[in-house]
Amino acid sequence: xxxxxxxxxxxxxxxxxxxxxxxxxxxxxxxxxxxxxxxxxxxxxxxxxxxxxxxxxxxxxxxxxxxxxxxxxxxxxxxxxxxxxxxxxxxxxxxxxxxxxxxxxxxxxxxxxxxxxxxxxxxxxxxxxxxxxxxxxxxxxxxxxxxxxxxxxxxxxxxxxxxxxxxxxxxxxxxxxxxxxxxxxxxxxxxxxxxxxxxxxxxxxxxxxxxxxxxxxxxxxxxxxxxxxxxxxxxxxxxxxxxxxxxxxxxxxxxxxxxxxxxxxxxxxxxxxxxxxxxxxxxxxxxxxxxxxxxxxxxxxxxxxxxxxxxxxxxxxxxxxxxxxxxxxxxxxxxxxxxxxxxxxxxxxxxxxxxxxxxxxxxxxxxxxxxxxxxxxxxxxxxxxxxxxxxxxxxxxxxxxxxxxxxxxxxxxxxxxxxxxxxxxxxxxxxxxxxxxxxxxxxxxxxxxxxxxxxxxxxxxxxxxxxxxxxxxxxxxxxxxxxxx
Length: 485
Hints:
By secondary structure, the protein is α/β, with parallel strands linked by helices.
């Protein structure tokens, strides 16, 4: 049993190690880029990158790195962005940092084929200059359950459970745009539950405020939230959603000098010589990489399982020490990651219960009932664990399947071992040692033999030598009768 537990724990640890080793070269390159950026002590343009889902690691990287860039003389910050969305808390922290900045932020959706979906649209609206590369898109900012922004909008046409407060008297002949928009808003506000309407209306007010601050199209921003509308780069420029369309960074910089922006609530112009400044890329440092690794849902999930099984194995084999130490460290790291991720606590409870049921199969002869129930609870809990619809913020089905397969194999090994032990012929307690091989451990003053790691007192009618092989022929209490092989 101990070997099966060790193998299962080893496989989980190897999964975690495979994830961590992939970023080793990235950390080394990030450190070299950071060293290069440290040498810059003059006016320059700082280039930051958001690539992938926006989470706590993204916020930490963006805020700390931009502060460092300002200290080193950055006069403008460009954020190259390609994101499917992100977490609400992380997005709002980034937006608050941008709005409080003393230097302009230019958010640039690049390269071609990139997108600024969901939370990316909010950041784009909050930036002092919003720019896109041709063949990129933005929008789809409808709040989803614990995803890009909190909450979940009910599908269009969903009947409302609350009574309508619309007046039965309608004004005939009034077909103005404002009336139509008001009626549309009222219809949208009445759909869904009260909590969903609160979340949608809060998100609408938030993005309209950002749009009005920078003089951009607030009506389309509301449409992006309520109807998940999207636009291409050229359409966004035509609709006054963004400010610039540029094929590359150099083309972007050429359109920035003397452009009017709203900085700290005041109308200002970007410096005329801004395009002549060097662009310095600030890559994530080791701290950002570590935080990004730990808060990755896949890694957090693996750490959680390693921690649970490590503590279970330590309890099953007291004194092993290593499983307990590894389990405690991994469990603490997992809890840190889970407290900043949108988790479902019912899923977390199912994972813990499932692991305990699989471990209980070692001690309780349930003939697979506990183990099978544990595997089922583990799989269901894994699917439910991360409560997010944002790509990259969920535990992959492949990883869940791998963990389920490993747990199933471990359960099969336990059942096989139990079944084999049941098929062994029953032997009387006072004859259990008869027929077993032994080795002479001591000859004088008393004959001692070693049987399966145990030292027994023995008696033999023939002289024996140290290390000689013998066989047990009889058992009398704590005394064995042996004969030479």
